[in-house]
Amino acid sequence: MTWRSARVIGLRDETATARTLALVVRDWPGHVAGQHVDVRLTAADGYSAVRSYSIASAPSSDGRIEITVERLPSGEVSPYLTQQVMVGDELEVRGPIGGWFVWRPEQLGPIQLVAGGSGIVPLMAMIRSRTSARSSAPFRLLYSVREPGAIFYRDELRALSSQGDSVVVSYAYTRVTPKDWPRPAGRIDAELIASGTWPSNLRPSSYVCGPTSFVEHTTDLLIAAGHDRERIKTERFGATGERK
Amino acid sequence: MNASMNYLDGNAAAGELSRLFVADITSAEGQCANCGAKRPFAEAHLYMQCPGLVARCALCGHVLLRFANVQGRVFLDLRGMTYLSVDAAPQEANN
């Protein structure tokens, strides 16, 4: 797999610390929702750093992809990508990578998505792929965030879940809830799994993405609720969200 | 996050391993040489806090794969798996 040049064609803030970069990648072969790319930055002295970022956008044939990057205070790459990069800049991209944690429009059955923090990114690509393919596969998303201000793609998710047959979205707040929220802040528990996910007897395919501790905890809860481990796919982010 | 959660998974190794494998490694299935479990490589626990990559069986913790890039040479140790099976039509994974 070769490194390809990519030009930044758009920037959009998702939260106070996360930014979406729209890229046009030269000779991009196309991707499947859930895949990621490696991004390489090279300094003038030749020092280079590589990080993995999930693709946030639906598959398209025009070479355009979007990634959403969370800024980490001690990060080496994310501060550059979220604060300094400008429209017109060139990056290097390798991908698409990974053919396992993916959703394809040919999958017709119910889908359960569970996101912790920036783990929403590859799951958002699946939601967008469902829309662009005009799929009617039943989707639910359980999205765990620290606080209301940490939600990525807020308006788009709200619009989707207000359209009848679309994507049912439930939120879990681990630190701060919105005003008058019926649950106290806390991590996902069995009660939230019961109210915010498909019942196991529908045999959904589940995709869980987030920090390792979140993925382990949530997967255990899904299995305890009767879900088949073989139908749960997971993707773990590092504690820092940056992969070395 | 405690120390026992200090790993990622096989998905995170796919970019580096694409330097060696034409096929998609995340959807490859491997059998652990220790406990015999047959699992997708994507589910292996991946440790990256070392000079290379170490993938361990998600069930028993046995080392499945070691990968290192040292002074311009890539080293790969696969003896922790009795086999690795991949999709025979690797290009489809990316399209």
Offer a few descriptive terms.
heterodimer; A: 244 residues; 2 domains; six-stranded antiparallel sheet; five-stranded parallel sheet; 5 helices; globular; B: 95 residues; mainly beta; five-stranded antiparallel sheet; 1 helix; 8 strands
Give the gist of this structure:
With 244 residues, chain A is an alpha/beta fold. In chain B, the strands form two sheets. Chain B has a five-stranded antiparallel β-sheet, with no helix packed on it. Chain B has a three-stranded antiparallel β-sheet with strand order 3-2-8, with no helix packed on it.
Helix-strand blueprint:
The complex is a heterodimer of chains A (244) and B (95).
Chain A: E1 3-13, E2 18-25, E3 36-42, E4 48-54, E5 64-70, H1 78-84, E6 90-97, E7 111-116, H2 120-132, E8 139-145, H3 154-162, E9 167-173, H4 190-196, E10 205-211, H5 212-224, E11 232-237
Parallel strand pairs in A: 7-8, 7-10, 8-9, 10-11
Antiparallel strand pairs in A: 1-2, 1-6, 2-5, 3-4, 3-6
Chain B: E1 8-9, H1 14-17, E2 29-32, E3 38-40, E4 45-47, E5 52-56, E6 63-70, E7 73-77, E8 81-85
Antiparallel strand pairs in B: 1-4, 2-3, 2-8, 4-5, 5-6, 6-7
